[in-house]
Hints:
alpha/beta, Nucleotidyltransferase, domain 5, 5-stranded mixed β-sheet
Amino acid sequence: MEYGHKIIYSIDIGAKGAMSVFKNDRYIKTLEYSSIDEWHDEIYWSIREVGRDNIIIVIEKVHAMPKQGVVSMFNFGRKLGEVEAMCKILEIEPIYVSPREWKSYFNMIGSHKNFSCIKALELEPKLKCYGKKGGCLDGIADSYLIGRYFIENKLIRKYK
């Protein structure tokens, strides 16, 4: 265990947002966004288990894009605000990773959203990133890839 008992939470804020959990650099699970309470509880119990200093929260650093509707951007901003407030309450400074950073690493710049599911499954076959009707759950795939990018690039040394 190179970093001790670190638990990394990687968060995709998007419309189909999700949070992936890694412990000691190994993928554990992904939680789809249903409410901020579920994510808060997950992280809270981890703090009790391993201590605040062993928790890392990585959030995709996102911004408004042209041609996105006002309502969808408002909802998007509200979800980001919820996640940032959760981090503040838990007294954990989040780390932001831009989409360009992690997508470049996985050669995904300009690729279709479905490619994130393909890439994530290539790296983690047990990841459940396709819905019941076969559609790509890109929030799950993206949250996994954000965490994987953070771990593979040893960014943990930079922040802890």
